[in-house]
Design a protein that fits this description.
By secondary structure, this protein is an alpha/beta fold. It folds into 3 domains: about 110 residues, no CATH class; about 40 residues, no CATH class; about 170 residues, von Willebrand factor, type A domain (Rossmann fold, 3-Layer(aba) Sandwich), CATH 3.40.50.410. About 40% of the residues lie in helices and about 15% in strands. The strands form 4 sheets. It has a 6-stranded mixed β-sheet with strand order 10-9-8-11-12-13. Strands 5-7-6 form a 3-stranded antiparallel β-sheet. Helix 1 packs across helix 2 and helix 12 runs parallel beside helix 13. It is flat and about 70 Å long. The protein starts with a helix and ends in a 6-residue tail after the last helix.
């Protein structure tokens, strides 16, 4: 795949010279589509370009002519419509130096038509800045780099499995008879229930509860995790807590905060930031104050911690067992598990492991896919 900025600039310049109005806004949309979709064939690239650069069907003929000139000949129209034809070609690893109507500066400063000479201009295979940041460990990112990821991180959707609701909806092939609706329908037929009204239960997403460790051992990941917690508060039926030496409910503070103020509000609300770790005591407080009141019943619980605990492992196992009896699913997020040398030898992690449905790392933006998948997966039998 060529360098995306060079690809977007060269191709849109060629379209502009061919008489297709392509402004900076369309060029920016095209570059963003390339970053998000990462097309690997000419067919995929053509679809990206058509969706972002062409606004009139009459421009398609000129568009295809320029596209074929830039990328080595027109793609087969049958293949573009999903019909049998020649397979779509892979994207060239270099862009042709000859672009219709494009002026390139020579070494002596004079401008000439690019069509006067055909040459191959090798371009570096450069990843976008977002791609480079996505695979780096959160602990290695600076505050500015985390801020660059925040906009993309807020597009994450934290989905949980659905559960039956007390509400219901009408369905022609429902499994249960709706007596009230059946009687209402029978009025049209003289009181005879010739047609049965049926319904099925509605479903709703399960509640999401996130408990995040903000102790000293988790401090390198705390900033990124708080950005993730800000995303969680945007999900329906989500509750966010932090813990170190005490449990703090952050949901009201994060929901009222702007993205840039979320970290500051969280720091003011949690006085035990970068302190010691008492996972067992904080879990006991959560079970006593919130779990027994029904918050954790049937919910998906995500615990973000490296497992370092100053308490007794037996106490942690007791409170984890209590939580597992009411929660639908427990997902433990431990950034340390990203290392291939990691072993669950920490006493706290070893005590909690039998009660976890999934253990993921979420140590980078790319690894968050594994976390979101674990949240939405069905419950496994422990």
């Amino acid at each position: 795949m060529p360098d995306l900025p060079e690809l977007a600039a060269s191709f849109t310049a060629a379209l502009h010279d061919a008489g297709i109005a392509v402004g900076p806004d369309r060029t920016r949309s095209f570059a963003r589509a390339l970053t998000l979709l990462e097309p690997s064939t000419t067919r995929d690239l053509r679809h990206c370009a058509l969706a972002t650069l062409v606004s009139d069907p009459e421009q398609i003929e000129r568009f295809d002519a320029v596209f074929g000139e830039v990328f080595g000949g027109p793609a087969d129209p049958g293949a573009q419509r999903g019909q049998p034809g020649d397979p779509a070609r892979s994207l060239p690893r270099t862009l042709p130096g000859r672009v219709p109507g494009a002026h390139r500066a020579t070494a002596d400063g004079r401008s000439r038509e690019a069509g006067a000479e055909q040459r191959e201009a090798p371009l570096p295979l450069a990843a976008s800045p977002l791609d480079r940041l996505a695979t780096r460990d959160f602990a290695d990112l600076s505050a500015d780099e985390l801020a660059r990821l925040s906009d993309v991180m807020r597009t994450l959707v934290l989905r949980t499995p659905t559960r039956p609701s007390r509400r219901r909806r009408t369905a022609h092939h429902g499994t249960r008879v709706d007596v009230r609706r059946t009687l209402a329908i029978s009025r049209r037929t003289g009181g005879y229930p010739l047609r049965l009204g049926r319904f099925v239960p509605r479903t709703r997403p399960r509640d999401l509860i996130v408990l995040c460790d903000i102790s000293g051992s988790m401090e390198p990941y705390a900033r990124a995790m708080l950005q993730l917690l800000y995303c969680a508060t945007r999900a329906a039926h989500a509750e966010v807590f932090t813990f170190a030496t005490r449990l703090t409910r952050l949901t009201p503070a994060l929901r009222r905060a702007r993205p840039e103020d979320a970290l500051a509000r969280a720091g003011r609300a949690a006085p035990d930031w970068s302190g010691g770790t008492r996972i067992a005591d904080c879990l006991a407080e959560f079970n006593e104050r919130f779990g027994r009141r029904g918050m954790a019943h049937g919910a998906v619980v995500a615990i973000i911690s490296d497992g370092w605990d100053t308490g007794t492992p037996a106490d942690l196992a007791t409170h984890m067992a209590r939580l597992s009896r009411v929660a639908h699913r427990i997902v433990w997020v431990n950034p340390r598990t990203a290392s291939p040398r990691y072993r669950p030898l920490v006493a706290g992690m070893a005590a909690a492991l039998p009660y976890c449905d999934a253990v993921v790392s979420a140590h980078s933006f790319a690894a968050l896919d594994e976390f979101t998948t674990a949240l939405s997966a069905p419950r496994r039998r422990r």
